[in-house]
Design a protein that fits this description.
single chain, alpha/beta, TIM Barrel, globular, binds S-adenosylmethionine, binds iron/sulfur cluster
Length: 336
Amino acid sequence: MNAPLIDPFARTITYLRVSVTDRCDFRCVYCMSENMTFLPKKELLTLEELDRLCSTFVKLGVRKLRITGGEPLVRRGIMTFFQSMSRHLDSGALQELTLTTNGSQLEKYAKDLFAAGVRRVNISLDTLDEEKFARVTRWGRLPQVLRGIDAAQKAGLRVKINAVALKGFNEAELPDITRWCASRDIDLTWIEVMPMGEDIGDANRIGQFWSLKELRAEYEKHYTVSDLAERSGGPARYVRLEESGQKIGFITPLSHNFCESCNRVRITCTGEIYTCLGQEGSADLRSPLRASPEGSDLLENAIRAAIGDKPKGHDFDYSRQEVGGTMSRHMSHTGG
Ligand code: SAM
Ligand code: SF4
């Protein structure tokens, strides 16, 4: 009886990304400032509220759920949330439960995540150099993350590395990172740095924009690169490196070419729904969630109304070598 979530541009919403906390144990320069003020706890959805919200989306046709943050694995009790969500995998309603993490807590949680039905995990890692890692994450330590990656693979989780492409920072490491991923059977995706937060261009000059076009040209110095037609329904495009057989992803959130197939919406840890990563517009789901007893239509109606307002696309624009459509919101707010 539940009609699927279809937006005004005939896109069916099947993918939900949920930020479960705005907190993090790192302070990556392109994501957070050094001195962050985090939300008071009472603003956050409780784990029970997150469960109810996610379960409502699953009821309305969401098939893929990605948990993110901040750092999702620093939220206290988060494993009970994963365990609880696994019932939707068991019933077949949900096809995939996954997360994006900085890897710092994986040594502790990889086994439990696998037991909860998680099969793939995206781990953010921009450099394999300890000193550079400490510089870009400010508070992170590389060995801890590498142990987390080991634990994830040992637990049976498929690992994908997401590396933010930063000119003059990890440019020269491209062959090393690529070979390292190949040697461990890890997928690799490069992300173009997005104009979020206040200081991506500063922060010790780490956060310089490195276009994926240039990055691709860098690959061509080392490999024969062929384009792959496959798309994931999201912003990633893929190429194959013929010599190693590796499939490399490129996420170019700044180009408009994926909006027409966008199947996703995002929820913040306070229960705001963002139907487009690149637009400021959001709607509050926490009030209807808190106001409605289980079984009432209030929450479902609020979700449908928000989907009914999903914009056609975003306004990021680097085409004239300047940042247009810049967002004041930090990535940690919507979870990327
Ligand atoms: N803490 C987790 C992590 O780092 O994977 C999940 C949240 S983090 C906000 C999600 C992703 O957003 C990470 O891969 C991170 O590198 C990316 N990210 C953060 N700020 C970004 C920016 N300004 N441009 C592009 N990617 C960004
Ligand atoms: Fe934390 Fe992830 Fe943002 Fe880095 S990118 S500060 S790990 S939320």
